[in-house]
Amino acid sequence: MRGFPFVQGGVESHCHNLIPRLSGEFECLVYRRKPYLTEESHVSFPGIRFIDLPSGRMKGFETVFHTFLCVMHLLFHRVDCVNIHNIGPGLFTPLLRLMGYRVVLTYHSPNYEHDKWGRISKMILRLAEKISLGCASHVIFVSPLQRAKFPESVLMKSTAIVNGINPLPKTDSTDFLDRHGIRKGKYLLAVGRLTQEKGFETLVRAVQGMADVDQLVIAGDSDHNPNARAELKRLDGDGKTVLPGYTTGENLAQLYANARGFVLSSFSEGFPMVLLEAMDFGLPVVASDIPAAHIIELPAHCYALPGNPESFAKAIGATFAGGADRIDYDLTSYDWDHIARQTAEIYRRMTG
Q1: 3-state secondary structure of 192
Q2: Is the pTM of this model over 0.90?
């Protein structure tokens, strides 16, 4: 993976929440990509050893190159079980099996559905999916809906274990908002990497001309496109969009705590943890009408067609008209301690 802590990404957030909870029972070796690490990333965790390897930051190539280096390291440093996160690195599952390893594949999302990949890359990712699902010893799907798409041969050796929520600290502070000119209670919030599949362009277009939307705050940054922020600003003719960058911890908690509501505009998702985070703060939400956004069923007017600014404008208007009260969602199924126990049971079966 890119790594953790303080590295943006859904897989990275998943691992940050899960692996430290496993390290009491297992000695965990985590392979990270050097270009994504910052000074904040160099934090030690009991029972976890980080191996930081080069990868470059060339889209597509970096995953293959980094995973190859990981496999070469595992050729000389034996472990009991290997957990691969997502189908791209899963290309190397046959090689790991030939080396005598039991391999757990955690299937986060069908990456070939993401618009950032070209035709050839999507073909390779589909091939990677077929190879990794076929060769893995066991598959963990973070979405039961994704798991249900596959044949019996995959179902027999797979488990659905949903992502969880690690509640951010509740806060009354607003200093982060003040620094970025964000007006408390007057903005809609979106969170995620600035990539095409997140649909932020659709969201920026949707709020143009909407008198009842004062500000749109998009918290995130781009891994590969240095012009991503400028492109969103170019679409923002009304000057409503605020881009505070990649935001975590107390600062992110401030954004959730003081938002008017939350919007998930993605074209595709494996399991949208940011949606759960927003629900933990009781925010009313508008979401793309994609399977992953139905993890907790919302009223029909809260869903919008992916990529359709008019549909999002209509859903935003209907959901947030005249303000919207906080909502008490039932999130008891998304507890990371329970998820860690389920994952540990699979590891025990693989290493027993």
Answers
A1: coil
A2: no
